[in-house]
Specification:
2 copies of one chain form a homodimer. By secondary structure, chain A is of the alpha/beta class. Chain A is 51% helix and 11% strand. In chain A, strands 3-2-1-4-5-6-7-8 form an 8-stranded mixed beta sheet. In chain A, helix 6 links the parallel strand 4 and strand 5.
Chain lengths: 340, 340
């Protein structure tokens, strides 16, 4: 990808979303490669949007796993206002990769994060998928450029990295490789927007993309503060949910500091608080490691803070709260593309 | 403060909140020292909770500034369900510091962030305030230990650092100095909880306390990614509001990764994704500076992203969204302590 996306392109994503039906008319059949947690989540969303889904995964028990997974996320899909009446009507399974993608309008691959395996998978997909199919990988850590070296048409592959779980969290990071075409990027953007997601096209391939880099930067300081005994995990979580979390749900870090700068906005903020941050705060941030003592502290406090419920119960609780939040902010997807 | 606060102390904060009336019965009169943005916000919250407020600030136009400020935040107070009918009935002004605090049950100081000035102010407050008054400073950067060296009774001073704006964002970081008494800490916790805030007691005095350190860690990477041209400010903000923000509004970073670890929870997360984060992501994070080129980029993009509204308009929009979010999560304060 050579040309940078213009800052106004967010507007086109929005208009694409409101024209969801026509876009999704071109996507009647999806191949989900890899039926783990991410694959199941994509499958559920695609199905709820009226797209037939064939799941390809070599595991013998894949059908049971996927059906159980879909049953698990159905309440969240329904909570988002999506139709879930006959969710699995369009679901099928096909272990053979070439057969699975042979009639796909979109291929969303969620295989293990191993470069050689991804190259092998994508070489096979490219051979067998229709020429019109949109080809996307959910990878969180492998650049499309590296995978596409194995492909005859590297222009066709793009990263479509969801934030977990994909059926619920709006963000999809679209990360073009060096040779991904502009047309592929725009098709991916329109497709994810039509699904009700909030796609964001990155202008450069950087390790971890954007959301995971930011998450990792904040988490490093979290680990430091707990390891140093400034707060417990539970206390730190409560600090975040009662300040930064709701703030950043409503406006991002730049908008927040623009408003924190008073009438002078972000420029004023940078000159006053920003420079103080650079000279006194950034150098004071921690540089923790997961050594034995730190891991022991983290595990002990996690048991104390979260030991009262299963991960499944806690996740369901989180998902209900997240849907309530999205509803309050008017950010649940419309329920176009019904299947029920 | 010698003894660490137990992890179960969150429960006592909650029960203090539900017993708001009795606690606030002991706080009939507050002295707000410094009538800037933070002072006005505290004043509005105190007044809405039925506490008389005397504002002490040497500026000649302070009364106009505070009254205008209170009018500005009244919609947000009302949005939180607090009574605002006769908000300024209990409001008065007193430039003389000693007179202002002479009958105060609580003193909340919001002066400039200069150590010598704070020492001078607190020496004067200590001389003039009643022996029972709760003494708190809103400072975001000066430890109570450093201010209290000038006081005869350092056990009485505690940091009560709000997250801006104090009337709206639930968090108050209570940061005891080396000589702050346990009794002072517990009184502060009960007082802020009774106001409907979510106080959190830190176990150690560290520069920037907790929320601002976390914010600063994430913002460093934001500046890096924009300076490197990976995303624009607008795009980065949209990435955060569509992923990390809502996630952290619902559960903090540790809970999020506990749930991200699958059935194995946080221990599983650390062993697999955590160690990968340590070895590949943390070393790759940026180390930006506010040099001329970076500042020019940040200012240009801020004008492009936020130039369409005044800071005041954008802040009002943000506050409305934040209140809707808090309401959806059941986190607005009850409307006890009515004045109307």
């Amino acid at each position: 990808m050579t040309s940078a996306t213009s800052p106004t392109s967010a507007a086109s994503a929005t208009s694409a979303a409101s024209a969801a039906e026509p876009v999704l008319d071109s996507y009647r059949r999806a191949a989900i490669i890899g039926g783990g947690v991410i694959g199941v989540s994509w499958a559920g969303l695609f199905l709820a949007r009226g797209i037939d889904v064939v799941v390809s995964d070599p595991r013998e028990d894949i059908e049971d796993l996927v059906r159980a997974g879909l049953a698990g996320i159905t309440p969240a899909l329904a909570g988002l206002g999506l139709p879930t009446g006959n969710l699995t009507e369009g679901l099928s399974f096909e272990a053979d990769l070439a057969t699975a993608v042979a009639e796909a309008d979109v291929v969303q691959e969620n295989g293990p994060e191993r470069l050689e395996l991804k190259r092998e998978i994508w070489r096979a997909i490219e051979e067998a998928a229709p020429a019109h199919a949109l080809l996307a990988t959910s990878t969180s850590s492998i650049p499309a450029s590296a995978i596409a070296t194995a492909m005859r048409q590297p222009a066709r592959l793009v990263v479509g990295h969801p934030f977990n779980p994909p059926h619920l969290v709006p963000l999809v990071e679209i990360v073009p490789g060096e040779r991904t075409s502009e047309a592929t990027v725009e098709r991916a953007r329109a497709f994810y927007a039509a699904l009700g997601k909030k796609p964001q096209v990155l202008r450069k391939e950087v390790p971890g993309f954007v959301a995971n880099r930011l998450q990792s930067a904040l988490f490093r300081e979290c680990v430091h503060l707990v390891a140093e005994g400034v707060v417990t995990e539970r206390e730190l979580d409560e600090i975040v949910t009662s300040s930064l979390g709701p703030r950043w749900a409503v406006g991002g870090p730049f908008r927040t500091f623009h408003l924190g700068g008073g009438p002078g906005g972000l420029p004023h903020f940078i000159e006053h608080l920003g420079r103080a941050m650079e000279t006194t705060m950034w150098p004071a941030l921690g540089d923790p490691t997961f050594d034995d003592a730190t891991v022991a502290t983290l595990v002990e406090q996690a048991n104390e803070a979260f030991g009262t419920g299963t991960v499944e119960e806690l996740a369901a609780e989180r998902d209900r709260a997240q849907i309530a939040l999205m509803r309050a902010l008017g950010e649940t997807p419309d329920s176009g593309g019904t299947r029920a």
